[in-house]
Amino acid sequence: MAIGYLYPWLYMVIRSFLRHEPGLSDGNGLFTLENYKLIISQAGFHNYILNSFIVLTVVVIFNIIFSTMVGYAFARYRIPFKKILFLIVLATLMIPKQTLMIPLLDLMVRLGIYNTLWALILPFCVDGFNVFLMKQYIENLPRDLEEAARADGAGEWSILWHVITPLSRPAISVIIINTAIINWNAFLFPLIFIDSAKLRTLPVALSMLVQSQYGTNWGALMAGATVSSLPIIIMFWIFQKEIIEGITSGALKE
Predict the structure, then answer these.
(1) Where are the extended beta strands (E) located within the chain?
(2) What predicted TM-score, i.e. pTM, was given to this entire model?
(3) 222-251 as b/e, with b when 16 or more CB fall inside 10 Å?
(4) Which residues lie across from 156 on neighbouring strands?
């Protein structure tokens, strides 16, 4: 399985260092950095990376905040129609996001944020899967620490951010990497919601930089995809322990 997952990525990296000659489908085997120089030298490339990082950072932060708050409310509070509301949250997971393209586009235009980075941020500030994950994780946390904090005079906000949030680090790590992968690699919605070249995110910009009327520069495309994959790989490497702990939590009961 590891070989199956690694092979496409390794092929992409190796192909990005091969010189492409007309008539040769896989390069002529000569090592070169021209593909990376071509990508980096393109006007606005650094700006595309910055746009992607801004959108990614804001969306991840909002998802952590909202998913933790909503998940805690579902897990600990008695809310009117709580089961129905939670079923509605779960129902959002069954709706393909592609079906929301036209309604969201119309909403962005009506709000006056079409062709701004906010159009790529606001619709994705909360995700049903992240709410479900936090709700299930918090339900398995012991209530003793919360009761002890209340006995010491802590309010609900203090309990949430100083007791629940630190205990939920594994689940939050899963939210970070899951949200980061989805938003960093997003192509369809940035293509639709952004019309200005200077506001494009990296996936959209790469698809337009390496294509011409005569064909696709596959070497440059592979180089751009390699650069684009590095932040996610680094992020997973940093949070791998927490991610594995978050995935396996609840598998064993004491």
Answers:
(1) 211-212, 215-216
(2) 0.83
(3) bbbbbbbeebeeebeeebeebbeebeebee
(4) none
CA distance 135 to 145: 17
Dump pLDDT digits (tens) for 46-69: 889 899 999 999 999 999 999 999
Helix (H) or strand (E) holding 146: helix 144-151
- For residue range 186-226, what is the model confidence (pLDDT) as tens digits? 999 999 999 888 899 988 888 887 666 566 777 888 888 88
Handedness of CA 135, 140, 144, 148 (dihedral sign): negative
Ramachandran quadrant class, 23 (left: phi over 0; alpha: psi -120 to 50; beta: rest): left
What 3-state DSSP class applies to 66? helix
Q: Which of 75, 36, 6 is nearest to 221 (CA)?
A: 36
